[in-house]
Amino acid sequence: MICLGIESTAHTFGCSVVDSAGKILSDARDVYRAPEGKGIHPREASRHHIDVSSETLKQSLDLAGVSMKEIDIIGYSAGPGLGPCLRVGAVVARTLSGFYRKPLVPVNHALGHIELGAMLTGATDPLVLLVSGGHTMMLVFSQQRWRVFGETLDITIGQLLDQFGRAVGFASPCGGRIEQLAGQSSGNYIQLPYIVKGNDVSFSGLLTAAKRLAENNKLEDVCYSLQETSFAMLAEVVERALSFTGRKEMIIVGGVSANRRLSQMLEAACERQNSRFYTCPIKYSGDNGAQIAWTAILDYQATGKNVQVQDAHVRQSWRLDTVDIGWRS
Ligand code: AMP
Ligand code: MG
Predict the structure, then answer these.
(1) Are residues 30 and 138 both part of a single domain?
(2) Domain shared by 132 and 263, yes or no
(3) Closest CA to 122 of 26, 22, 25, 24
(4) Does any ligand 1 atom lie closer than 6 A to the CB of residue 117?
(5) Is the N end or the C end of the chain the one with fewer CB atoms within 10 Å?
(6) Same domain, yes or no, for 227 and 252?
(7) How many angstroms from the chain centroid is the CA of residue 159?
(8) Residues with Cβ–ion distance below 5 A, ligand 2
(9) Which of the ligands is closest to the CA of residue 131?
(10) What is the pLDDT of residues 120-157, one digit of tens each?
(11) Which residue from 3, 41, 13 is spatially nearest to 286, judged by alpha carbons?
(12) Same-domain check for residues 142 and 268
């Protein structure tokens, strides 16, 4: 079976063809870039997605060497995400499904990050840390759902990095640039608010304090201190969750998993808890159509899940822990 996956929750419009053995036959993406110092504007991003959608789709089919007729099912990112962006992907998916008469499978975007990461690394029953622009969540699979063992109480780690970066003049997304600058610091740690409540984290006070620090300190040192503080908070809650749940594997997924310092800290926590540490390959850590295609295959094969074109809706808010999972036990 081969599936076309369509991703359009935020800045990325992606189309990917994946087969049921887990082979990624193509992964075409086009990413909306916000003007310097600005965040993602949903309407502008959706216009970008409209402009690039047919070329990205063509590219993904060409790279995979297949035609639409050879595609067995279509998966699309149905949420959570930005409404105008989600609707572009859904329109493309509905149109293709209606015209070519292919089953249409709505996919929860967060689930896509997890399932592709698990497939690519071989992690079977991990504690998951999902860290991206839209999520900061720790999850464990239990009784047919991914259960949340900790999450952010306000902004996500991606928002922390991007909002700080934009405040000091970087172009969004800023995580990579902050990591690079932090690496140039001589290790001069400046105290910042460290807020862990139970197994939840809070980053908004940290953001305000870091912006203020940036006014009269070396930017390298502020980036370093921002990373050390926020990542230590995440490592603390991960270590406690590993200890509570007894999970012997942990995986980090989402765009922020590209960060090497974060991986280093989590790996150390895993070692102390005798758990194996996995990280989603950087190439697939950000948003992409392969996440959606692979998850659609899992769902369709296990439960036959598919919807009629008129029922192929999108949901801007769609918590992962409300989704019943039919392919894991
Ligand atoms: P996603 O929403 O999964 O596409 O992830 C996007 C987020 O990942 C943005 O907030 C980026 O700033 C962040 N990101 C990308 N690369 C890195 C990095 N090397 N270190 C930290 N964050 C990163
Ligand atoms: Mg994402």
Answers:
(1) no
(2) yes
(3) 22
(4) no
(5) C
(6) yes
(7) 13
(8) 132, 287
(9) 1
(10) 999 999 999 999 999 999 999 999 999 999 999 999 99
(11) 13
(12) yes
> Domain span at residue 289?
2-113+285-322
Residue in 242, 296, 319 with CA at minimum distance from that of residue 112: 296
CA–centroid distance for 206 within its chain: 22
Closest CA to 318 of 120, 76, 39: 76
Nearest CA, atom 8, ligand 1? 255
- DSSP state at residue 90: H
Residue 68 and residue 137 in one domain: no
Domain count, the chain: 2
C-alpha to C-alpha distance for 131 and 113, rounded to whole angstroms: 10
118 located within any domain: no
| The model's pTM | 0.96
Regarding whether 71 and 8 lie in a shared domain, the answer is yes
Q: Is 18 exposed, middle or buried (0-12, 13-18, 19+ CB in 10 A)?
A: buried
pLDDT digits (tens, 9 = 90+) for 98-121: 999 999 999 999 999 999 999 999
